[in-house]
């Protein structure tokens, strides 16, 4: 199963929607950097079974992560990368 | 597990390289190995010895170099991307007749084949976009 | 070298930034190393297929780089059908000599089948 990494604000570009259009059942999505501004995007909860948000990036920006999304640290991010294959980054 | 990190962002311009540093530390702390860090596109600026960020900001170059020394990391700058953007080794500067050498200690210039090889020999490839 | 299945995803338009050009260069390098990647043009990456005259802006024509891929063993380009439709591009009007253009309705299932993905 694929791990998708999104680093762009959904208000700045299409990385999130492009990612969600390429989701396969069981895939996971990790929001990092400006991608954390997508935590409340209804398209994310509607399309992704497993969503994660890098905690440091959210706290750094003053973004509150809802309970529907698991807040993770870097170690858990690495573990998710080890559990999934391939890994796809959606950026810019 | 062997990880390869591919970095497209210039330091102090995009967040990608700083995020990749945090990820790299977590990879090593989790008992995995880093096969290679491949800097491509604007990411090659991470290997410039001439960056001089203000003292109250994080020094990404120094952090890469510390990590490289501690774990004998392979930090590879794509040579084609680096030539275009002006990060040169002594031999490249001589060959291209350029007036300065600015590749930082701990980094090496190599061809794109090193990205292909890393993709083939690593268990995971993670791209840090610009 | 062990053979891994590698997918290169091109999702950026040519010329606006270096990603499309440097992505194609990386694809050629993989193929030259006997690690022939599959190639998926998705989102703005489908714009690479348009007839173009980059000389007008002093650039090299990237469609020509795309057309060189079969010589390196990349004989199929996978295209996201949805991306074409969203951009008003009729797949029937697209062609690239020596290359099979394959339309994908479900890029997610396609991506999931690879060991490694290089994103450009």
Automatic annotation (TrEMBL), chain A:
Protein name per UniProt: Sulfurtransferase complex subunit TusB
Encoding gene (name): dsrH
SUPFAM superfamilies: DsrEFH-like (SSF75169)
UniProt-listed InterPro entries: DsrEFH-like, Sulphur_relay_TusB/DsrH
Pfam families documented for this protein: DsrH (PF04077)
Automatic annotation (TrEMBL), chain B:
Taxonomy, superkingdom: Bacteria
Main localization of the protein described in the UniProt heading: cytoplasm
Localisation per UniProt entry: Cytoplasm
Catalytic class of the enzyme: transferase
Classification via InterPro entries: DsrEFH-like (IPR027396), Sulphur_relay_DsrE/F-like (IPR003787), Sulphur_relay_TusD/DsrE (IPR017463)
Family, per entry: Belongs to the DsrE/TusD family.
Entry protein name: Sulfurtransferase complex subunit TusD
Automatic annotation (TrEMBL), chain C:
NCBIfam families in UniProt: PRK00211.1 (NF001238)
Record carries keyword DNA repair: no
Catalytic EC class: transferase
Similarity annotation: Belongs to the DsrF/TusC family.
Top-rank lineage group of the source organism: Bacteria
Enzyme nomenclature, EC number: 2.8.1.-
Gene: tusC
This protein's name: Sulfurtransferase complex subunit TusC
Species assigned in the record: Microbulbifer harenosus
